[in-house]
Design a protein that fits this description.
heterodimer; A: 535 residues; alpha/beta; globular; B: 105 residues; mainly alpha; 4% strand
């Protein structure tokens, strides 16, 4: 196996034992990036056409385009420092010498921090986000900032102002998912062993599933959001993307925990996720819910609600995974009712838009970021032109919808109702995870996504259909509970299938343990040996 | 179903949001908003008890899990010049903006 494909925990072990140098690991990874990532992206041309009407940028240079900004020299300094410390016999941290990427929604001091938007295309962050700071303090080597949907608003990465947008390493004509699409692409293609993403409706888990990697949305409050550019503040969660469960556990161990700079970072002790990984699943109660094997969506053309089963190969993959866990001693409990799952997307359409609109008012061309170069009549004209040119269609949609559903005359009907339905979604989870209740589950096992990766341009432009890609992931965001997506096989087109584990608040340790048990049970399966064709 | 977000409502929202849109863009965005609103209408079908409270977030915060409030201490920023350098236009330490219109209230 090439160095750039080695898992993070193997790299750390080899670097600590002086069998590999951090700088050599970095150079191998930079060489991989140079061979697979293609030309760096550039800003979309500024036109009056909405970007879905602009000619699709589908040129087939076979590049993966995970990166917006590569910070190779900064990384070299970090890697050399790790080697120097080891040479001097000094202590190094648990991520010593591990190359990682950061979704370009986190501030990293002295680096461009764009949110995938023209409005922040020239913004250089004056401070570093807590999870990034913790990874660097643990010896991690930051490679650079990876692409995403503009302000994280999407499930395909196509909405980024930086084009070409990332491609799926398993089939470059397909999307990597989103919004942490650059993160998933990079991890799958050996462009850094780990990536720091964010998950507001499934933005870590859905691209992880599409690209065949592990992705975790921790409990709301498990990981600090200091330095994260805000989207929907009541649900945003930073989380790890990695090539296996052990690496995800190692990374979560580093980034989790209270932070005096984020009042939502909960004061809850961080358990040792890594050493307890191999304890197995004997006696654990894991549920299957029929409400996660169908999707309900609004068909705008007919004006009707439609319900469909998820793709049969995805359902079979989940059921096979349940069988493997049962063989390892887990109790699989069927027919778990999660009746409010289907309302996750409509609730999200309201709550996330209201919070996005509020968070986006700060971009005004005054203090930082883009300001229109056009002649303006006064400051209000400057605001309008700056925001019109600086934001793509997704931020505009979200601002306008957020303002509409929270307006005084509509908020009872929409916003307040959505907040109350969120209570019902949370109760679904409370009831099935209640240790004294009828079901007493430690986890739910579900598909991560209703489909595998869709072709570029197939969904982009239809903001309703795109949102429904998150239907099976968004309930965990509303409830705040943790979720873990694991690769579990391939569909007949050779595209990865992800399965999802959901657990009660702060049960990351149990989810990672189940995930590791599943990895061990499937270690010798033929599909585990497949590699993305671009490699 | 008639469009809930009419051109008139839409134009009002655009003005409140400090945006301006080309005709193509406005038509696309208004169409998408109306589609999204139809999906949102599914929420009306859910029976809600009068005592179902709103949830401001999913995970409960108890006094034990809520972080202590930080002391409100003044600290100088290490690099105010770097912060100011991000502003599109400055003059001797001040941020410059176009004329602010005088509005009679």
């Amino acid at each position: 196996m090439e160095i750039s494909d080695l898992p993070a925990h193997v790299l750390v072990e080899n670097i600590r034992l002086r069998q590999l140098k951090a700088i050599d690991v970095l150079e191998a990874t930079l060489a991989r990036i140079a061979s697979v990532d293609g030309d760096p992206p550039s800003l979309r041309p500024l036109t009056s056409l909405p970007s879905h009407l602009q000619p699709a940028n589908l040129e087939r240079d076979q590049g993966l385009h995970a990166f917006i900004t590569l910070t190779a020299e900064r990384a070299r300094q970090q890697a050399r420092e790790i080697d120097r410390r080891l040479d001097a016999g000094e202590q190094v941290g648990p991520l010593a010498g591990v190359p990682f990427t950061v979704k370009d929604i986190f501030c990293v001091q002295g680096t461009l921090t764009t949110a995938g938007s023209r409005i922040l295309a020239n913004f250089v962050a004056p401070y570093t986000a807590t999870p990034v700071q913790r990874m660097e303090a643990a010896g991690g080597v930051m490679l650079g900032k990876v692409n995403l949907d503009e302000f994280t608003y999407g499930s395909s990465n196509e909405s980024s102002a930086f084009q070409p947008s990332p491609r799926n390493p398993w089939d470059v004509s397909r999307v990597p998912g989103g919004s942490s699409g650059g993160s998933a692409t990079a991890v799958a293609a050996g462009e850094g062993a780990l990536s720091l993403g964010t998950d507001t409706a499934g933005s870590v888990r859905q691209p992880a599933a599409f690209c065949g990697v592990v992705g975790m949305k921790p409990t709301y409050g498990r990981v600090s959001r200091y330095g994260l550019i805000a989207f929907s503040s009541s649900i945003d969660c930073p989380g790890p993307l990695a090539r296996n469960v052990t690496d995800a556990a190692l990374m979560l161990q580093v980034i989790a925990g209270a932070d005096t700079r984020d009042a939502t970072a909960a004061n809850v002790p961080v358990p040792d996720y890594v050493t307890r990984l191999k304890r197995g699943v004997r006696g654990m109660r894991i549920g299957l819910s029929p409400d996660y094997f169908r999707i309900t969506y609004f068909d705008a053309s007919s004006g009707e609600l439609r319900q469909e089963p998820i793709a049969p190969e995805i359902e079979q993959t989940v059921l096979r995974a349940a069988g493997r866990l049962a063989e390892m001693g887990a109790d699989i409990v069927e027919d778990i009712p999660m009746p409010h799952t289907r309302y996750g997307i409509p609730v999200y359409f309201v709550i996330s838009r209201v919070e996005a609109a509020s968070n986006l008012h700060r971009y005004d061309g005054v203090k930082y970021g883009y300001r229109t170069p056009d002649a303006v009549a006064d400051v209000a004209d400057m605001y309008r032109k700056t925001r019109a040119q600086g934001f793509g269609p997704q931020p505009k949609l979200r601002i306008l919808m957020g303002m509409y559903v929270s307006a005084a005359q509509y908020s009872e009907q929409y916003y307040n109702r959505a907040l109350r339905v969120r209570t019902l979604i949370r109760r679904d989870f409370d009831q099935v995870f209640d240790p004294q209740g009828r079901y007493r589950l430690q986890a739910l096992l579900t598909p991560t996504t209703p489909t595998t990766a869709f072709p570029m341009a197939a969904v982009y432009g239809d903001s309703v259909l795109m949102q429904y890609a998150d239907q099976l992931t968004v309930p965990a965001n509303h409830a705040g509970v943790p979720g873990l997506s694991l690769p579990a096989g391939f569909d007949p087109d050779g595209l990865p299938i992800g399965i999802q584990l959901l657990g009660p608040d702060f049960s990351e340790e149990a989810l990672l343990r189940i995930g590791r048990a599943y990895e061990m049970a499937t270690e010798s399966d033929a599909w585990r040996r497949r590699r993305p064709p671009v490699l | 179903m008639t469009e809930a977000i009419t051109r008139e409502i839409f134009n009002h929202l655009v003005q409140l949001a400090a945006l301006e849109l080309s005709p193509d863009e406005a038509e696309y965005i208004r169409g998408e908003l109306n589609k999204q609103l139809k999906a949102i209408h599914e929420l009306e079908a859910i029976p809600l008890q009068d005592d179902t409270p709103p949830a401001s977030h999913g995970v409960p915060y108890t006094p034990a899990t809520s972080p202590a409030v930080r002391p409100d201490e003044w600290r100088p920023h290490p690099d105010p010049g770097g912060i100011l350098a991000q502003a599109p236009e400055t003059d001797e330490g001040y941020i410059v903006v176009p004329e602010i219109p005088h509005i009679e209230l």
